[in-house]
From TrEMBL, chain A:
GO terms under biological process: attachment of GPI anchor to protein; GPI anchor biosynthetic process
Protein name: GPI transamidase component PIG-S
Lineage per the UniProt record: Eukaryota, Metazoa, Chordata, Craniata, Vertebrata
Native source organism of the sequence: Denticeps clupeoides
Name of encoding gene: PIGS
PANTHER family: GPI TRANSAMIDASE COMPONENT PIG-S
Domain of life: Eukaryota
InterPro entries: PtdIno-glycan_biosynth_class_S
Membrane-spanning intervals of the chain: 12-31, 525-547
Family from the record: Belongs to the PIGS family.
UniProtKB/TrEMBL annotation, chain B:
InterPro entries linked: GPI_transamidase, Peptidase_C13
Similarity annotation: Belongs to the peptidase C13 family.
UniProt keywords, alphabetically: GPI-anchor biosynthesis, Membrane, Signal, Transmembrane, Transmembrane helix
Entry's Gene Ontology cellular component terms: GPI-anchor transamidase complex
Name this protein carries in UniProt: GPI-anchor transamidase
Pathway: Glycolipid biosynthesis; glycosylphosphatidylinositol-anchor biosynthesis
Coiled coil: none
Gene Ontology BP annotations: attachment of GPI anchor to protein; GPI anchor biosynthetic process; proteolysis
Pfam families xref list: Peptidase_C13
Transmembrane segments: 366-385
Amino acid sequence: MAAVEVEKQRGRSAAVAIAALVIAAGIPLWWKTTETYRAWLPAARISELEALQLELRVEVEVVFARGTLSPEQQKKVPASRMREQQQQVDDKTGLKFTYETRFRTATVMEEDALNQPTAAEADHALHTLTETSCGSVVIYIIPEASALLPQDMRVYVGRSRTALLRSQVASVVGAGLPEVLAALDPQMEQVLQTMSFNHQDVTAALTDRLRPGLSTRDSLADSMRAFKSSPGYEITFSLLNPDPKHHQLHWDVEAALDAYIYPLLHKMAPVANFSVDSQILYYAVLGVNPRYDASASAYTLSADSLAHVINPVEARLGSNAASSNPVLNFLLYVPDSLHSPLIIRNDQKQEVASNAFHSPRWGGIMVYNVDGAYGNDTQFPVDIAIDMSRVMGVFLSQLRLMLGFQQTGAPPGFVLEAAGREGVAEWELDRLLWSRSVENVATASASITSLAQLLDQIANIVINDNIAQQVASAVTALQAAVAELEAGNLALALEHSREAISASERAFFDPSLLHLLYFPDDQKFAIYIPLFLPMCVPILLSLLKIFREVQQHRAEKRAKRD
Amino acid sequence: MTYVSLLSPVVCVCVSHFVLIGRTSAFLLLHQARAERFFRSDHTNNWAVLVCTSRFWFNYRHVANTLSVYRSVKRLGIPDSHIVLMLADDMACNHRNPKPATVFSHKNMELNVYGDDVEVDYRGYEVTVENFLRVLTGRLPPSTPRSKRLLSDDHSNILIYLTGHGGNGFLKFQDSEEISNVELADAFEQMWQKRRYNELLFIIDTCQGASMYERFYSPNLMALASSQVGEDSLSHQPDLAIGVHLMDRYTFYLLEFLEDIHPASQANMNDLFKVCPKSQCVSTPGHRTDLFQRDPGSVLITDFFGSVRKVEITMETINLTVPGIPLERFGGEPHTETALAYVDQLPVAQIIHQKPKQKDWHPPDGFILGLWTLILLVFFRTYGIKHLKHIF
């Protein structure tokens, strides 16, 4: 009996020990080994990014030329002033525009420069005198009687960051400097909105963060036309020759690119990397049949048929298979001899001067007529050299549109100097840098916050250490970019914002972030029950038995005592 | 009801043909309407992801479904670079195919949808749930080529077409795995978070297809399915020469509808919802538009199936013709071109003119030693050890 008792005791202690092992060691082990590895993300800093308060600071220098200020006003200059404009775009995004203005009088050399006969030469001379930093604006106030500007124009915006503003404040005797400044304010505001940024541009750049539907129609058209900010772009120039039997085309595209396109791309180097290539396609036809118009004795393409031109051609265009950057295509189509000359008509049935059209976020096509280069009885094929400067003029303007330089809509009374051979004026580039920095900041913050939200929402995504590292570096770069924008250093802000966006894109699109297969609950039970039930049932039953025996023993003891 | 549904595409075609040919004021009015349409649908490019999730010969009809939609989408203008086609691609060259290199979608071999310009991006065993989700969410390894990626942006309209065998809440991929409707909804949400689409049209032709779009929760999604939960999608017609069913009913009638659409057509989504009513399809097609912001009646078929580009006339040009100034080379002097040649793949000079190389002597390796030891052992075992003195 004692042996049976000992046996029973051993059995009981064995059951209890096994149960204790299972509960104390087994369950935590199972929990630990079946959980997904999630590295720690800086959640606090990420939630700070949700509410974005952007401050954009512009340094403005206002230089008064001789004759614009009375002597007692001149004594008060140099002065400085700061003006702020606050705007709440939506409940999570706020904007503040700060204009830090410094006033001074012109130096002798600047006066000499302003004495040039035309505004363009004055601008050129002024440009050689001072070195303006990226993002700043210099406004020269010239007297009302000055002959630099034509009579009805008030403002001249040059190719660098300077503007000439004709002062309309006839120096009222007795007026102090503050009154003069107050009178100049609205005009200066207009100049700054043209040369730096205005509310519409910045709101358009913030569309990634905003709810859809907040942007206006014009800004929607602009945002649809230009490519989104990307670390690199591929530009392909193609020559389409449908008729090699008659036309032997020569285009010196390398020299033309060197002369006209590369300067612009070199200036845009802080914004993105560009890779340029060119190709020639033979026997490539447009997908649309042009109609012959006897009145113009030419073949015409109407505006609505242009939409169907691109697709058949696009199938034959090559692209670089190695990169995933957006591609801009610029096609030069030389019509075949049977369909020459080919002109494009717009909606009002008028000829288009450039004979070219472009498609948003795709590129442009130009039709180049060569029928004037040869007579009827020449020996075919005819050697034709294409005038690349004309072609590049059109492509350059299309490229500018695609890259985000808005169509120059000069406000009334403004003269905006055309960019010419450099491709882009410095202030236009500054405008682009402002909107690109804001866009990068908006996109990067939207990416990071949505990544954090997604990782919270979908519980079975593994977060590796490198993801956490990327996110942390993205957050750091983002905060640095916002700080630089506040300080007014545009170039540094752009650099940090590019870092932020590339880190956030890499984190978001990391291949390891694929969520594991979703298992509905009944499937989970179906997997666990055959594994755990045969093991748990004996343990539970034996624990129950032990428990009942202990209860019985206690009842007996109580009965014995009573 | 079938007459009405058949008549409406015909009416649309007539109207659009009249509009295109005539030079009346109606044409100009349509022009203005087209100009306004620049803002009505704010997409600038179109993408299509067409997936056939079955393999094996008896699932011929799924491949024919996908290829038919591929053909329509290409005909309406979407280029191959914007189509991600995932097929098991084992039909055309299957041993059982009596007409190799063809996949027919109509009986009596009327229409060969395989053609000679099919560009399959994911073929064979690459069609997996993981690859499909990676394509949708963009989380591909950096070495993936451009043609295998969905490079859409926030102004892209995407068409997603899935076909295969499915059930209530899942879709079977190649007989080995399945994708559930929750995963699909999560994938679309990830696409929305990163603004990888402007609007998305999801068409699924499987049994109980409506269960796959039940769980969607992201905006701007429109979904069509060939059958409701609890119903089976049926196939259309077997071909006795090929021996299998060639198409599924829903896709067959969808294709008939799409054959009447051309790039300038004005047919809208309400016509698409009427495709294949219960009398033709036996199952009840369903659709879901509550997540879509625009009214389906104002959404054109070509917004998703075609690729009608928006164009603008270039008004401004830059005057670069400054006479007398030569083109300066940017970046310094051009470097002289060195003549380039290919490296020899085989060292021909060495092979042809070499003397036989003196190979170093190696002692015989283990195998030879073992073989000879075995032979000797057998010999002496057979004939006795006394013969040893003849050897040594």
